[in-house]
Give the backbone structure.
Amino acid sequence: MQFSIADVACAAARALPGGWGVKRGDWGVSATLFSGSRSFRLYVDEHGDLCLDYERPADERLPEVMPRGVGVYHGGSFFEAARPGEGLHALSGKIASAVESAVTGTLVEIPKPTTPMALANAHAEHGPALSYPITGRLSCHSAGHHTPAAATHMVSYLGLTLPACDNHRAHAVDAARELHDLS
Ligand SMILES: [Zn+2]
């Protein structure tokens, strides 16, 4: 390996919007990315998995939605099948997107907005992924139902909305984000 954990953390910090700093851990086997009240400790666990522990403000929930290949455990996330051979650029990109998702990708529940402007304002206040309860005729967007299932929520990723049942809200954010990024 031609680079250290701290090198990966520094490259990820540079890729993130806003000011992120990096502190090297003792022995060079971990590094902490920090910004404001949030910090993420990057290290390799006893199974050889690259892990990212998340210290977050008390009022902030754990992210429900992470990029593909990122698993979530209590207090953090890990990178499935990440290996040093992928290179510094690929690894730091994965870490930057996981940090960004953890900071901004939390699905926040809001009351049903009455106008598009109210929804836009809610996004400005709470972040890119919102959900609000709906009643009535819409079916869950997921193809995972054998027969159509009633949607209980509308999930909005920056205004692009999909109806979802309780089980498919996280998936709806993923799908809405992909649609949003294409549009
Ligand atoms: Zn569903």
Remarks:
- Residues 108-182 form one domain.
